[in-house]
Write a sequence for this structure.
């Protein structure tokens, strides 16, 4: 697998990123000692498509996912996981509304003469 973790993706062109992905796919495949034909069969794609990916040609996301699945590399998609987050204001509102104690079982009825009008 690729050992370089200090790639500046932001500075790279789209073409350079596609080439890097292709290189990663190729190194991963070779690390697993699989031929392009084996990956093609495992992914349901043809060998030409695998060659395209490895040579940095643009392919569909579906094809990329199929290749990652064939290489047991779907874990690379973990960064695309979306987690629900609550804003600090919404959290403060929820905490304010949270009950702090139980109410009594009897209901208090206020008589009109007891009401001081405050």
């Amino acid at each position: 697998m690729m050992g370089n973790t200090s790639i500046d993706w932001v500075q790279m062109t789209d073409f350079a990123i596609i080439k890097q992905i292709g290189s990663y796919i190729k190194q991963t495949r070779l690390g697993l000692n699989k031929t392009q034909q084996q990956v093609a069969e495992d992914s349901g794609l043809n060998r030409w498509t695998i060659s395209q990916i490895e040579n940095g040609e643009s392919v569909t996301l579906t094809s990329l996912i199929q290749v990652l699945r064939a290489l047991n590399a779907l874990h690379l998609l973990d960064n695309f996981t979306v987690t629900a987050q609550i804003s600090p204001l919404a959290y403060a509102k929820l905490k304010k509304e949270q009950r702090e104690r139980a109410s009594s079982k009897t209901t208090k009825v206020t008589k009109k003469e007891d009401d001081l009008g405050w």
